[in-house]
Specification:
By secondary structure, this protein is an all-alpha fold. The protein has one domain. The chain is about 60% helix and about 0% strand. Helix 1 packs across helix 2.
Amino acid sequence: MDASNKDRSGEELLSTIVELTGLEEGAVRQELGNILDGAGQPQADVTLEQLRAALLQYLESLNEDFANSESGFPSH
């Protein structure tokens, strides 16, 4: 299965990503939903590039949280 197909978007793309993680579907879907919501991206028609941008924003916020924390763990 290849998630890089540029024609995939929305639910088809998210289902592919969830399946490729090999993790519990509900948890992954919820986390992806939270990440996309936080980036202002609607799940229904998200593209691969929008998903990548949302994930980058999410990782940058985690990195900032770690950097700002004395213990190395996020405060929330």
